[in-house]
Design a protein that fits this description.
This protein has 390 residues and is an alpha+beta fold. It contains 12 helices and 9 strands. A hairpin with a 5-residue loop joins strand 5 and strand 6. Helix 11 packs across helix 12. The N terminus is likely disordered.
Length: 390
């Protein structure tokens, strides 16, 4: 199941990490949720041995040898000197920073606690009094950078256990004692060695927190958590968590390389193809909504064709930059996505989702998701090789 985990890294972040996105000041804004319901549910114990599909499913699987052989969008080749188009940062140096979660015992212990209090078997009792150590608090928050009052971190429905430092060291003390419906404004300075979001390390933010619910909680026992997540022992679940942390670190490492790379110019052919991908998405949205492209522009862009074109160009720039970085890394660490790897990851997807699909839909899944699955594994290979070399 190792490879199937890599698919989800493009859309999942570790629960201990704060999910980052860019605000209009170039700083990182976060939308966090300490207790996602499905954390690790799609993973299984690390095991390189793959279980074959049943013969009935296997014979219905389309094979890459006949209809899918190259993990690139048709027409994208980047078969030239990439140094003329992009400059990578010095990602091998110790000074290269990226959002990072340690894989030490303390981090794993914290994740186990999150799983225990997030379990469906945990017992919650809502309280009307102020929160105390051991209580679970659900809150919304916004924050601004103190230096210029620009928007910083924000989140809705964030769940933490008071005293466990699930948000950041020292943060719990500012909301301890608050009851449901109460709000508080305060300044909080992130530690200098904070690595969950490097953009806020040593930064002082002005927070506004509103508590939604307070619960006393009896966490699920560890044996229940182990069984709930498909592991055979506590040690095996700890290994799953460690592997997930490491995969997220690699993904964040690659995203930092992409963000800090400098594009000299965009190859014209590839840039136009990347814009066409945006067009395909718009056309698909129009079809789903039983309208036209003009209808999507009218509803989603208020009929502003200039805004539509600007977003189209931005999409192409981001996609083309990502591709330039990946292909530049491929020059440094030669790798490719083989036909067998593609078939394996497609089979894994089918095994995870096949029971909910009619067999007649497999070709449609292959057609629509094949590229995304291939890209995901391709990105993961680039991240793994670059991360190992730093």
């Amino acid at each position: 199941m190792k490879r199937i985990i890599s698919i989800f890294l493009t859309i999942l972040c570790l629960t201990a990490s704060l999910v980052s996105c860019k605000d209009n000041h170039g700083k990182s804004s976060l939308d966090t949720d300490a207790l996602p319901e499905n954390f690790l549910k799609e993973t299984s114990p690390s095991n390189d041995k793959k279980e074959p599909l049943s013969s009935n499913n296997e014979k219905d699987m389309p094979k890459a040898e006949t209809d899918y052989a190259i993990p690139y969008i048709e027409g994208l080749d980047y078969n030239y000197d990439l140094n003329k188009y992009i400059t990578l940062p010095d990602y091998k140096s110790d000074s290269f920073k990226f959002d990072y979660t340690p894989t030490d015992n303390a981090s794993i212990d914290l994740e186990l606690e999150r799983l225990s209090i997030g379990s469906r078997y945990a017992k919650l009792t809502e309280k009307s009094t102020g929160c105390e150590n051991g209580d679970m608090v659900v809150f919304d928050y916004t924050s601004q950078y103190r230096d210029d009052n620009s928007n910083a971190l924000s989140g809705k429905g964030i769940s933490i256990r008071i005293g466990s430092e699930m948000f950041a060291p020292g943060f719990d003390s500012f909301i301890k004692g608050l009851s449901a419906g109460k709000s508080k404004t305060f300044s909080f300075t992130f530690p200098s060695d904070w690595t969950k979001s490097i953009a806020v390390a040593e930064e002082t933010l002005e927070f506004n927190v509103t508590v939604l619910k307070v619960f006393s909680i009896v966490p699920a026992d560890i044996d229940t958590v182990v069984e709930e997540h498909g592991a055979k022992s506590v040690d095996e679940l700890r290994e799953i968590i460690k592997d997930t942390i490491d995969k997220n670190n690699r993904y964040n490492f690659l995203q930092a390389i992409i963000a800090q790379s400098e594009v000299i110019s965009y190859p014209q052919k590839e840039f136009e193809i990347c814009k066409s991908l945006f067009d395909r998405d718009i056309e698909a949205r129009a079809e789903i909504n039983h309208t036209t492209v003009d209808g999507i522009i009218a509803t989603d862009y208020s009929g502003d064709i200039t805004k539509f074109e600007a977003e189209r160009v931005t999409f192409a720039e981001n996609k083309c930059k990502e591709d330039l970085v990946i292909f530049a890394l491929q020059d440094i660490y030669p790798f490719e996505l083989t036909v067998n790897e593609y078939n394996l990851i497609l089979a894994e997807y089918h095994k995870e989702n096949g029971s909910a699909m009619a067999l007649s839909s497999i070709e449609e899944v292959h057609k629509n998701l094949g590229q995304a699955l291939a890209d995901s594994l391709f990105l993961d290979k680039a991240a793994e090789l670059a991360y190992a070399d730093r």
